[in-house]
Design a protein that fits this description.
Number of helices: 7
Order of helices and strands: EEHHHHHHH
Radius of gyration: 43 Å
Structural class: mainly alpha
Distance between the termini: 147 Å
Number of strands: 2
Length: about 270
């Protein structure tokens, strides 16, 4: 199992402000501070994937960074393999000499990448990192040879069988020692995600209820405001009508007085 690497970690999300964080690297017994971004660049550009698997034991921060680099290396390997196969398939009808690299790449995908694909679910869910860095190094070397053939290089024999045997050992190692633990972590992660979805759903329902209540309150307030405006308008109209009635009443009283005076005068004349 030493060839396959050891240890599996639970991958965590990268820091949001990575340039502000630092890790402590021990050199000659003294603490030397190094920005995380610099450490990522150094580890990613100057070490093989097999060495990254070993460097995970240096420090918890190194463990996280190396794990992320191993995972990204695994996904890049899958993408590179697919792109090479599509390029070969496009050129194969016009260039029959590409049968050999196409066959080699197909064997790489079937016997190497498919063997370690048993870990894909836990990798996709972020439960652990890819622990077999040596397979990434050797498979990338095989793809370099295939790409060289694709570009017109000599079609030498590519020894993919030893890497395929290594991939089978890795798959057996994973199923024997790691799969049960990873499934437990995966189940726990799925339960946590389900709980988070329920919390988000509850939060959404609360927000929807609050929003509905706010809308209802606004509607009721608008309706009350409209009714008050209507009552104020009616009150103003009633006051206006009342003033008009008072004026008409005063005019009628004055006419009655005039008529009374006329009747009194007429009565004196007749008497």
């Amino acid at each position: 199992t030493d060839i396959l690497g050891k240890g599996v970690k639970k991958r965590s999300v990268s820091p949001a402000q990575i340039h502000e964080q630092e890790v402590v690297c021990r050199a000659n017994g003294t603490n030397v501070e190094m920005p995380v971004l610099c450490l990522q660049l150094i580890l990613g550009n100057y070490f093989t994937y097999e060495q990254l698997g070993q460097l995970r034991a240096v420090h918890p921060h190194w463990d996280e960074i190396c794990g992320q680099l191993l995972n990204s290396g695994y996904y890049r390997l899958l993408e590179r393999s697919d792109q090479l196969l599509m390029a070969l398939q496009r050129k194969l009808p016009a260039d029959p000499s590409l049968h050999l690299p196409t066959s080699i790449l197909t064997n790489i995908q079937v016997h190497i990448l498919n063997s370690v694909d048993v870990m894909r679910a836990v990798l996709d869910e972020g439960v652990c990192c890819f622990p077999y860095g040596v397979i990434l190094d050797k498979t990338n070397a095989l793809l370099d040879q295939v790409e060289f053939m694709l570009k017109g290089g000599d079609q030498d024999k590519v020894k993919w069988e030893p890497v395929a045997l290594l991939a089978k050992k890795a798959a057996l190692h994973y199923r024997t020692y790691l799969e049960r633990t990873m499934e437990e972590r995966l189940g726990e992660g799925l339960r946590l995600k389900a709980a988070q979805r329920i919390i988000r759903l509850d939060s959404f329902l609360v927000e929807s209820t609050v929003s509905k209540l706010e809308k209802d309150a606004n509607k009721a307030r608008d309706e009350l405001k409209w009714e008050l405006e209507q009552l104020q308008h009616q009150n103003a109209q009633l006051r206006k009508d009342n003033r008009q009635l008072k004026l008409d009443h005063m005019r009628l009283e004055s006419r009655v007085e005039v008529l009374e005076q006329k009747f009194k005068t007429l009565a004196r004349l007749l008497s």
